[in-house]
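Q: Structure for this?
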Amino acid sequence: MEQVLVGGLLFVVLLSLLASGIWVAFSLMIVGYLGIALFSSAPVGQVMATSVWSASNNWALAALPMFIWMGEILFRTRLAEDLFAGLAPWMGRLPGRLLHVNILGCGIFAAVSGSSAATCATVGKMSLPELKKRGYDERLAIGTLAGSGTLGLLIPPSIILIVYGVATEESIARLFVAGVLPGLMLVVLFMSYVGIWSLISPSRVPPPDAAMSLREKLWNARRLIPVVALIVGVIGSIYMGLASPTDAAAVGVVLALLLAWASGTLNRRTFVDSLMGATRTSCMIAFILAGAAFLTSAMGFTGIPRELARWIGEMGLSPYALLAALTVFFIVLGCFLDGISVVVLTTAIILPMVEAAGIDRIWFGIYVVLVVEMSQITPPVGFNLFVIQGLTGRNIFQVAYAALPFFLLLLAGVVLTVAFPEIATWLPSRMAAQ
Amino acid sequence: MRRFLNRLYLASGILGALFICAILATVALQVGLNVLDSLIAWIAGRAVGLLIPSYAEFAGFFLAAASFLALPYTLRRGGHIRVNLLLQHVPAGLRRWLEAWCTLVAAAISGYFAYYMADLVYASWRFGDVSPGMVAVPIWLPQTSLLLGLVVLTIALLDEFVTIVRGGEPSYEAQAIEGVLESLDETGDDAGKRGGG
């Protein structure tokens, strides 16, 4: 019990450090330091150096800079234009028409990029002006973009699932495969919502563009073929056990460079920009993971997560009640913290509690990512909201209001994944033995 | 001095980026060899087993080097995540104090970390620890990359602290999101130019 109180105190210290503006990785290290120095006689500095060293030279984590780089390269190609031109002609008949381009475009871009903000920005810069020009409902245009942008976190390759996998020592390949069906489920949920909304209020959906023949449609979509091939190649080779995520990611970078070269967007500047961008992002994430690795071993010394697990266990909560409480906790935390920080805090402190409740670790990873997706579109700190604010000039609360239905749809997605865990666990269970 | 420090930070970033290229080269080469191996097996009926010795281990070392060497550069470019909700909503005077507090605390932790990393490197060197893979690499070698990154990071943080105390703006002000939008504008411009040209 005492340790639970101490744990609460350290948590308050952590939040204060974060609120004062200290970088996430340093805040984690300071709390780890306090944990060891105050509650055990272990040599803090040595624990810090060894835990960080062993967490940092990691083959599985090498997938991180590779996937980030691949996304950075494709982000600088004409993929956004290609997505709009290729997808739009097919959407004329669906209720809601071009609004679906936002959802499917984000879904496809999410499969080459692991970042939610990049997904949102890439698709939005192309689709928002086009939708506005044609007179689509602005609220729904913004909402679909904000909601579908979060797919970048779930649909593999997902940066945040790599972080979760490395921090929990789970197979990243299995996590990736587990994210596929929930990602598709969200696409279906979003598209159904747009469809139903449009059937209810048909007057607010502008008329379709001039119809195209099948040949024209296919011709317009031709430039999407290499990207789709890239997606199928990367995810397929992981699923079939042909390649580890790191192997697949390196091949993905090579193919992305070839694609950029073939489309004429690869030059010295885009190459250097993409490489340096990937270096910064991967450095930032790796440093947070280093801080988290130290915090995790520090927490092991204090015994706080174990006690917390026992304390929760004694309360006799059902897994559903525990998950409901965690969901509320994550949503509140996610209002102020970015997704990666939420995930590393989870793995350092909450995971033993979750395991004690008999919850599968792969499934829990998908659940956490779903909840983190919701936090991307909640004010005051929601990265997708910032991106759309930058794209549209609307203030963050207007954007958040437009995104509200999609926040609720994500919540529905969480409920479905809790009620039918097979959505996340079935596909990895069918994977080729690794 | 100013020029030397700026060059030091940029060099750290470039070195980090080169290690990311090294990961790509190693892993892609090994995948290429795997493909070649399968081809040989298919033609000659027997796989040769083409392998870069300890390639997974090397990729891990390169990753550690890339992550830590790029730390100061990433700091200067505002790449490290922090919660700036409070910072954005306090008066400029208080904000300066908060920034000074952040950089000083971070510099202290970073310096502490660097000291014990040096300790670890020294211990690995003294006991002659080598990596467990096929190629026995003296482990102090890759560990030194972490030490270097942390030392330069500590210098960079102290540098920021001095700048703030003297009344200047910290260099990491550019926000991550602005970065995303900036590069969007760039690609947008490029597309416009191509379209026009």
